[in-house]
Design a protein that fits this description.
241 residues; two-stranded antiparallel ribbon; 7% strand
């Protein structure tokens, strides 16, 4: 029988977050960002326009071949309609041209690259998502699923996520590398490096304010704080003379 205190606790609510966390077999947590309905629809519209253009050009050329060209065009129509997405998703790291332009990609639920079986499943089941018209079932599923999955994604165990841009190395301000006046703790080193890396994003007044605060324990005059901190930051990175 539950205790009085546990019975009075409110039910746990899911967090209001669109992050999708996956734990790899190595015990590493991956944080994926599922793509919502609007960017997915835009990516699909781009791919639809590209496929339409391909088919128009293809039928213009094949029309010159008469009946043989029309028969060949029917086969190519099937291939472009059903294999366009599959080939791009499997051979281009889960990215069709539309997804690539919107910064999206398709992965398995565990974050691994999508394979042939999953891509075929999610794309062949589009005929279910489009029912009864205009992707009605797919839109309803996408809006009601916490990871914005359509029915094809649920069946295939796939997820459309944002492709994280590679992190660029922060540029430090130009300064002569200097040694720290005394051994710094790890937190102090992080604070100085953080100031040097973010300096270009701050106004001159804000940089001067933060530099004065950071330089006070170092016993550096306020007017010399900013160049001295930038020099110590470069020294911490192994560029000290």
């Amino acid at each position: 029988m539950p205790s009085r205190s546990s019975a009075s606790l409110p039910p746990t609510q899911p967090p209001l977050d669109t992050r999708y966390q996956v734990e790899t077999p190595e015990g590493i947590d991956l944080h994926l960002r599922p793509a919502g309905l609007v960017p997915r629809a835009l990516a699909f519209a781009i791919d639809l326009a590209i496929r339409g253009l391909i088919l128009i050009l293809m039928f213009i050329v094949l029309g010159l071949l008469g009946q043989f060209g029309m028969g060949l065009g029917t086969i190519l129509l099937f291939l472009v309609t059903w294999w366009y997405m599959v080939l791009f998703e499997v051979l281009n790291q889960g990215r069709s041209p539309g997804k690539q332009m919107l910064g999206l990609r398709v992965v398995h639920d565990d974050g691994t690259p999508i394979g042939w079986a999953a891509s075929l499943t999610r794309n062949l089941l589009r005929f279910v998502d489009i029912l009864p018209f205009g992707y009605t079932l797919g839109i309803i599923s996408c809006l009601n699923h916490p990871a914005f999955k359509r029915l094809g994604d649920i069946a295939a165990g796939t997820l459309v996520v944002y492709r994280d841009a590679p992190l660029s190395k922060p540029q430090l301000a130009a300064a002569e590398p200097l040694p720290a006046p005394f051994p710094l703790s790890l937190d102090e080193q992080r604070a100085i490096l953080g100031f040097a890396e973010r300096g270009g994003q701050l106004s001159a007044a804000r940089r001067a304010e933060l530099a004065a605060l950071l330089a006070e324990p170092l016993q550096v005059p306020a007017e010399q704080a900013e160049p001295r901190l930038n020099g110590i930051a470069r020294g911490l990175l192994g560029n000290a003379p």
